[in-house]
Amino acid sequence: MTDALRELYQDIVFDHYRKPRNRRALPGASHTAEGHNPLCGDHVAVHLDVADGVIRDATFEGEGCAIATASASLMTEALKGKRVAEAKDLLDGFHRMVTGASPAPHPELGKLEALAGVREFPVRVKCATLAWHALQAALHDRPAPVSTE
Amino acid sequence: MNPASASVTRIAGAAPGVRRWREDFPILAERVHGRPLAYLDNAATTQKPQVVLDALTGYYARDNANVHRGVHTLSQRATHAYECARGKVQRFLNAGEAGEIVFVRGTTEAINLVAQSFARPRLAPGDEIVVSAMEHHSNIVPWQLVCEATGARLKVVPIDNEGAFLLDAYEAMLGPRTRLVAVTHLSNALGTIAPARRIVELAHDRGIPVLLDGAQAISHLAVDVRALGCDFYAFSGHKVFGPTGIGALYGRADRLRSMSPYQGGGDMIRTVTFEKTEFAEIPYRFEAGTPNIAGAIGLGAALDYVSTIGLDAIGAHERDLVARATRGLAAIPGLRIIGTAPDKASIVSFTLDGVHPHDIGTILDQAGVAIRAGHHCAMPVMQRFGIGGTARASFAFYNTRDEVDALVAGVDQARRMFR
User: Fold this and answer.
1) Which of A41-45, B11-15, B110-114 has the weakest average pLDDT?
2) Confidence of residue B3 (pLDDT cuts 50, 70, 90)
3) Measured at the alpha carbon of residue B335, what is the angle toward residues B365 and B362, in degrees to the nearest 5?
4) What DSSP character marks residue A93?
5) CB B221 within 8 Å of CB B315
6) How far apart are alpha carbons B100 and B151 in whole angstroms?
7) Catalytic residues of B, which ones?
8) Cα B235 from chain centroid?
9) Residue B212 and residue B135 in contact, taking contact as beta carbons nearer than 8 Å
């Protein structure tokens, strides 16, 4: 395996791909939106339960590649308990990390830093950001499917 | 084995004929991530031999001028080269006359031209257009557009679990409201070769015209439009070792003459006044605006090149590669080949349990092996097999057995990584 592959497919990525956290429907979700990657046809739906400006619960549905699934799983874990403004900040930090726009990782990314290797694979950025596109749409109450294109 | 010796071995292991062919393609000496390139994405686009590159630069370096209008020498040279290219396409397809060859941007534009200029004026609500379940989007969407505009509807010939075209179901589907049959000659997602000649016969027995989508077939099968008997044949230059942005529509002369243009502008007219326009003869009435002159010349060079090798030799070599890939991949636990029709060519499409096609594609890319992963612009085919996408290796005559082995090794590595 090359170093780049090792960096991309870290153990934590495999773990969240094989055992995705929070992959379930969320009855009564206050926010929900779908993301679509036309490159491969993958879909993901993100559900949020937001009360008093705080994300009480975050889940996702759908299946994708290892990167897309791990990203959605790690994202939902990171969102719980965050204020909406903090979630938007996290989204920005994640996007900057995987696109290589930010030299230093965002301090709040935590386990999400496992996906930093994506920046060496530009074509896979769409996989890593699929759930995040849906998150952004959900936070802006745009339930129509958003595309990574 | 280090990457450098792998490169030598991959080529050294090739048959002498293949080694010679490979030397015609500069890009095949490229390295990707330090590994020798094994380009197995030929169904998406093929690589270009030096003679095509030379034809493109030669036109721009020595002959560049517009066609059909100038009285000066360069324009005459450009016009001559452009029309010679048309003749080469005519001979490659065994069309009856050069006027039956319309230069277009590619297969998609060719099908849209037929949809808008031939089908649309002839369709009424309730009429039917027959396609098959193994079409790519380019041979679905144009028909959906004309159906939406006219009230006609699509009927879809099913395929079996191997991906074979069901001829009996097709025959039963042809009826008094069928106005056109449009089917692929070779499926880009499955590799299935459609029984094109029989498809045409059955349609013609009922007076129904047939369009064959030759986007994939053109570089793998010998295409003789008169032997096939089809009314229209569409293909893209870039899938037959030519440039992008150029392709051709073959249309039987009487069909083309019965059609009005769907794009207006320079070069497709005979006379224009503010009251009336008289259209040019075929094929010019369908070539509005300045055409892709260099592209057409490059396509002509590509067809000459393919002819020197011969589609029989190409077919034999590719059958060997497909058989080797099928054997090697089928031995990998959890791997399922999608598309196992008895009559297939050039493509091995597959899924691997627990590993998404994109992950397979990335892992192979690191090994220098280029394949396609996804739905291949054939989402209905994926739906037919209940999958989101496949990993697809597609072969050309310049591929080697060692490249097939690199594919198999890379896929097995992906399996082990995800175990």
Assistant:
1) B11-15
2) very low
3) 15
4) H
5) yes
6) 30
7) 377
8) 5
9) no
> How many other CB atoms are there within 10 angstroms of residue B419's CB atom?
10
* Cα(B335)–Cα(B337) distance, integer angstroms: 7
**CB proximity list for B98: less than 8 A, separation 6 or greater:** B83, B86, B87, B90, B283
Calculate ∠ Cα B87-B90-B95, nearest 5°: 145
B418 chain-A contacts, CB cut-off 8 A: 14, 66
Pairing of strands B232-236, B210-213: parallel
What string of DSSP letters covers B189-203?
TT-BBP-HHHHHHHH
- Partner-chain contact A40 B359, CB within 8 Å: no
Residue B298 CA to residue A50 CA, distance in Å, equals 59
Residue type for B269, please?
Answer: I
- Selection from A34, A13, A8 nearest residue A130 by Cα: A34
The interface predicted TM-score of the complex, written ipTM, equals: 0.91
Provide the strand spans (E) within A5-149.
31-37, 42-51, 54-61, 146-147
**Structure-token pair, residue B366:** 């690191």
pLDDT digits (tens, 9 = 90+) for B284-293: 999 999 999 9
The pLDDT tens digits for B122-157 are 999 999 999 999 999 999 999 999 999 999 999 999
In angstroms, the first-to-last Cα distance of chain A is: 30
Q: Write the burial class of residue B161 (CB in 10 Å: 0-12 exposed, 13-18 middle, 19+ buried).
A: exposed
Residue contact B389–A2, C-beta within 8 A: no
Give yes or no for residue B74 having a pLDDT over 90: yes
Q: How far is B175 from chain A (nearest CA, A)?
A: 35
A66 touches chain B (CB under 8 A): yes
Cβ distance A41 to B359 less than 8 Å, yes or no, reads no
Rounded to whole angstroms, the Cα distance separating B150 from B122 reads 9
Q: How far is it, in rounded angstroms, from Cα A90 to Cα A110? A: 10
- Please list, in sequence order, all residues whose beta carbon lies within 8 angstroms of the beta carbon of residue B238, skipping any fewer than 6 positions away: B45, B46, B106, B244, B245, B246, B247
Amino acid at the residue A2 = T
Which strand ranges, in their side-by-side order, compose the sheet holding B178-184?
A: B101-104, B247-251, B232-236, B210-213, B178-184, B128-132, B153-157
Closest CA to B370 of B392, B350, B351, B353: B392
The sign one gets for the Cα dihedral B104, B107, B110, B112 is: negative
Residues of chain A with Cβ-Cβ distance to B356 below 8 Å are: 40, 64-66, 68
| B233 neighbors B197 (Cβ within 8 angstroms) | no
- Using the Cβ of B267 and the Cβ atoms of chain A, whether some distance falls under 8 Å is answered with no
| Separation of alpha carbons B114 and B180, rounded Å | 10
Strand B128-132 with B153-157, pairing: parallel
With residue B256 as reference, give the H or E element that holds it: helix B253-257
pTM, two decimals, is 0.93
Residues B241 and B299: their CA atoms lie apart, in Å, by: 8
Q: d(Cα B133, Cα B187) in Å, to the nearest integer?
A: 10
Give Cβ neighbours of residue B141 (< 8 Å, ≥ 6 apart): none
